[in-house]
Amino acid sequence: MNRSTTRTIAILSTCVLAAVVGLTAWAAFGPKSETQCAGTNVAGGTSTIGGPFELVNEAGVSVTDADVFTKPTILYFGYTFCPDVCPMDSLRNAEALYLLQEQGYDAQAAFITVDPARDTPEVVAQFTELFHPDMIGLTGSEAQVKAASQAYKTYYKLNKETPDDEFYLVDHSTFTYFVMPETGFVDFFKRDDTPEQMAERVGCFIDSAT
Q: Which residues are annotated as a binding site for Cu cation?
Protein backbone atom coordinates (compact mmCIF):
# COMPACT_ATOMS: atom_id res chain seq x y z
CA MET A 1 0.00 0.00 0.00
CA ASN A 2 1.56 3.27 -1.11
CA ARG A 3 1.46 6.59 0.72
CA SER A 4 -1.29 8.00 -1.54
CA THR A 5 -3.60 5.05 -0.87
CA THR A 6 -2.96 5.29 2.86
CA ARG A 7 -3.80 9.00 2.83
CA THR A 8 -7.05 8.35 0.89
CA ILE A 9 -8.14 5.66 3.36
CA ALA A 10 -7.40 7.98 6.27
CA ILE A 11 -9.45 10.80 4.74
CA LEU A 12 -12.39 8.47 4.03
CA SER A 13 -12.24 7.11 7.58
CA THR A 14 -12.30 10.64 8.98
CA CYS A 15 -15.30 11.54 6.84
CA VAL A 16 -17.20 8.44 7.90
CA LEU A 17 -16.43 9.14 11.56
CA ALA A 18 -17.59 12.74 11.21
CA ALA A 19 -20.81 11.61 9.57
CA VAL A 20 -21.51 9.13 12.36
CA VAL A 21 -20.84 11.75 15.03
CA GLY A 22 -23.04 14.24 13.20
CA LEU A 23 -25.95 11.83 12.87
CA THR A 24 -25.62 10.83 16.51
CA ALA A 25 -25.69 14.45 17.62
CA TRP A 26 -28.66 15.22 15.39
CA ALA A 27 -30.57 12.27 16.78
CA ALA A 28 -29.85 13.39 20.33
CA PHE A 29 -30.29 17.14 20.01
CA GLY A 30 -32.02 17.79 16.69
CA PRO A 31 -35.75 18.21 16.05
CA LYS A 32 -37.84 15.26 17.22
CA SER A 33 -40.85 13.74 15.56
CA GLU A 34 -44.13 13.24 17.38
CA THR A 35 -43.37 9.51 17.50
CA GLN A 36 -40.24 10.23 19.52
CA CYS A 37 -42.21 12.47 21.88
CA ALA A 38 -44.95 9.95 22.69
CA GLY A 39 -44.67 8.07 25.93
CA THR A 40 -47.13 5.27 25.14
CA ASN A 41 -48.53 3.85 21.92
CA VAL A 42 -52.29 4.20 21.58
CA ALA A 43 -54.15 1.11 20.41
CA GLY A 44 -55.78 1.97 17.10
CA GLY A 45 -53.85 5.22 16.81
CA THR A 46 -54.40 8.70 18.21
CA SER A 47 -57.31 9.35 15.84
CA THR A 48 -59.47 6.97 17.90
CA ILE A 49 -59.42 9.32 20.92
CA GLY A 50 -60.95 12.78 21.15
CA GLY A 51 -63.47 14.59 19.06
CA PRO A 52 -66.02 17.40 19.10
CA PHE A 53 -67.98 18.25 22.23
CA GLU A 54 -70.13 21.01 23.66
CA LEU A 55 -69.85 21.88 27.35
CA VAL A 56 -70.34 24.84 29.70
CA ASN A 57 -67.41 26.90 30.98
CA GLU A 58 -66.89 28.56 34.36
CA ALA A 59 -68.83 31.63 33.22
CA GLY A 60 -71.86 29.51 32.35
CA VAL A 61 -71.30 29.94 28.62
CA SER A 62 -71.67 27.07 26.16
CA VAL A 63 -68.37 26.25 24.45
CA THR A 64 -67.15 23.71 21.93
CA ASP A 65 -63.85 21.84 21.80
CA ALA A 66 -62.64 24.43 19.26
CA ASP A 67 -63.36 27.19 21.79
CA VAL A 68 -61.48 25.35 24.54
CA PHE A 69 -58.41 24.00 22.76
CA THR A 70 -57.00 27.28 21.46
CA LYS A 71 -53.53 26.37 22.73
CA PRO A 72 -51.73 23.18 23.83
CA THR A 73 -53.85 21.78 26.66
CA ILE A 74 -53.33 19.30 29.50
CA LEU A 75 -56.80 17.74 29.91
CA TYR A 76 -58.24 15.79 32.85
CA PHE A 77 -61.63 14.24 33.63
CA GLY A 78 -62.59 14.16 37.32
CA TYR A 79 -64.93 15.70 39.88
CA THR A 80 -64.54 18.27 42.62
CA PHE A 81 -65.98 16.14 45.45
CA CYS A 82 -63.25 13.55 44.81
CA PRO A 83 -61.46 12.98 48.14
CA ASP A 84 -57.94 12.26 46.92
CA VAL A 85 -57.16 11.26 43.33
CA CYS A 86 -58.56 14.29 41.50
CA PRO A 87 -56.88 16.92 43.70
CA MET A 88 -53.56 15.08 43.51
CA ASP A 89 -53.75 14.66 39.74
CA SER A 90 -54.87 18.26 39.24
CA LEU A 91 -51.98 19.49 41.37
CA ARG A 92 -49.54 17.37 39.35
CA ASN A 93 -51.00 18.71 36.09
CA ALA A 94 -50.76 22.28 37.39
CA GLU A 95 -47.11 21.77 38.33
CA ALA A 96 -46.39 20.47 34.83
CA LEU A 97 -48.09 23.54 33.37
CA TYR A 98 -46.06 25.87 35.58
CA LEU A 99 -42.88 24.17 34.35
CA LEU A 100 -43.94 24.57 30.73
CA GLN A 101 -44.76 28.24 31.16
CA GLU A 102 -41.45 28.84 32.93
CA GLN A 103 -39.78 27.39 29.83
CA GLY A 104 -41.65 29.83 27.61
CA TYR A 105 -44.42 27.55 26.30
CA ASP A 106 -47.90 29.05 25.86
CA ALA A 107 -50.03 26.23 27.25
CA GLN A 108 -53.03 25.67 29.50
CA ALA A 109 -54.91 22.97 31.42
CA ALA A 110 -58.56 21.95 31.40
CA PHE A 111 -60.70 20.04 33.90
CA ILE A 112 -63.91 18.35 32.72
CA THR A 113 -66.18 17.15 35.50
CA VAL A 114 -67.85 13.75 35.38
CA ASP A 115 -70.24 14.86 38.11
CA PRO A 116 -72.28 17.66 36.51
CA ALA A 117 -75.13 17.39 39.02
CA ARG A 118 -72.93 18.82 41.79
CA ASP A 119 -70.25 20.54 39.73
CA THR A 120 -71.89 23.74 38.57
CA PRO A 121 -69.86 26.36 36.67
CA GLU A 122 -69.24 28.18 39.97
CA VAL A 123 -68.03 25.01 41.70
CA VAL A 124 -65.58 24.00 38.95
CA ALA A 125 -64.31 27.60 38.85
CA GLN A 126 -63.49 27.49 42.56
CA PHE A 127 -61.84 24.09 42.13
CA THR A 128 -59.57 25.01 39.22
CA GLU A 129 -58.55 28.32 40.81
CA LEU A 130 -56.96 26.31 43.60
CA PHE A 131 -54.42 24.84 41.20
CA HIS A 132 -53.60 27.20 38.34
CA PRO A 133 -55.00 30.44 36.89
CA ASP A 134 -54.80 28.91 33.41
CA MET A 135 -56.78 25.77 34.26
CA ILE A 136 -60.22 25.89 32.64
CA GLY A 137 -63.18 24.25 34.40
CA LEU A 138 -65.90 22.66 32.28
CA THR A 139 -69.26 21.11 33.10
CA GLY A 140 -72.58 20.69 31.29
CA SER A 141 -75.65 18.53 31.15
CA GLU A 142 -75.37 14.81 31.85
CA ALA A 143 -75.65 14.13 28.12
CA GLN A 144 -72.94 16.67 27.24
CA VAL A 145 -70.52 15.31 29.84
CA LYS A 146 -71.20 11.72 28.75
CA ALA A 147 -70.50 12.63 25.12
CA ALA A 148 -67.19 14.29 25.99
CA SER A 149 -66.20 11.34 28.18
CA GLN A 150 -67.02 8.84 25.46
CA ALA A 151 -65.04 10.84 22.92
CA TYR A 152 -61.93 10.50 25.08
CA LYS A 153 -62.66 6.88 26.02
CA THR A 154 -62.90 7.65 29.74
CA TYR A 155 -64.92 5.71 32.30
CA TYR A 156 -67.03 6.94 35.20
CA LYS A 157 -69.81 5.59 37.38
CA LEU A 158 -71.77 7.28 40.16
CA ASN A 159 -71.97 5.22 43.36
CA LYS A 160 -75.21 6.34 45.00
CA GLU A 161 -76.51 4.25 47.88
CA THR A 162 -79.87 5.96 47.57
CA PRO A 163 -81.32 8.28 44.90
CA ASP A 164 -81.08 11.26 47.27
CA ASP A 165 -77.54 10.50 48.48
CA GLU A 166 -75.66 13.83 48.45
CA PHE A 167 -72.25 12.44 49.43
CA TYR A 168 -71.79 9.81 46.76
CA LEU A 169 -68.42 9.05 45.19
CA VAL A 170 -67.68 8.53 41.51
CA ASP A 171 -65.49 5.78 40.08
CA HIS A 172 -63.58 7.14 37.11
CA SER A 173 -60.49 6.63 34.97
CA THR A 174 -57.49 8.76 35.81
CA PHE A 175 -55.60 9.35 32.57
CA THR A 176 -54.49 12.87 31.72
CA TYR A 177 -54.58 13.82 28.04
CA PHE A 178 -52.56 16.21 25.91
CA VAL A 179 -54.50 18.00 23.18
CA MET A 180 -53.18 20.34 20.48
CA PRO A 181 -55.22 22.96 18.59
CA GLU A 182 -56.49 21.62 15.24
CA THR A 183 -54.51 18.39 15.74
CA GLY A 184 -56.59 17.14 18.65
CA PHE A 185 -55.47 14.38 21.00
CA VAL A 186 -51.79 13.44 20.69
CA ASP A 187 -50.78 11.64 23.90
CA PHE A 188 -51.83 10.64 27.40
CA PHE A 189 -50.17 10.42 30.80
CA LYS A 190 -50.51 7.86 33.56
CA ARG A 191 -50.75 8.68 37.25
CA ASP A 192 -47.12 7.78 37.91
CA ASP A 193 -45.82 10.27 35.33
CA THR A 194 -44.13 13.17 37.12
CA PRO A 195 -44.67 16.87 36.34
CA GLU A 196 -41.16 16.97 34.91
CA GLN A 197 -41.82 14.02 32.59
CA MET A 198 -45.09 15.56 31.46
CA ALA A 199 -43.51 18.94 30.77
CA GLU A 200 -40.70 17.31 28.80
CA ARG A 201 -43.08 15.36 26.56
CA VAL A 202 -45.51 18.24 26.07
CA GLY A 203 -42.62 20.55 25.19
CA CYS A 204 -41.35 17.96 22.73
CA PHE A 205 -44.73 17.83 20.98
CA ILE A 206 -44.97 21.61 20.81
CA ASP A 207 -41.45 21.89 19.41
CA SER A 208 -42.11 19.20 16.80
CA ALA A 209 -45.19 21.10 15.62
CA THR A 210 -43.32 24.36 15.01
A: 82, 86, 172
